[in-house]
Amino acid sequence: MLNxxxxxxxIKAFVADESGAxxxxxxxxxxGIALFIISGVNSVGTKINSKFASIQxxxx
Length: 60
What we know:
Radius of gyration: 27 Å
Number of strands: 0
Oligomer: single chain
């Protein structure tokens, strides 16, 4: 006869394990923060680049 109780315990343990979900949540949070920082740096970089370009043309 086939013993199903061991398989059921394994499935229940797999469903109850939330360590993978926590790692995914941290990864999503870190990627959101990174996107926010990248967009901010890109915006500031564009403004600084245009400011240096105007300084360069005024020095010529």
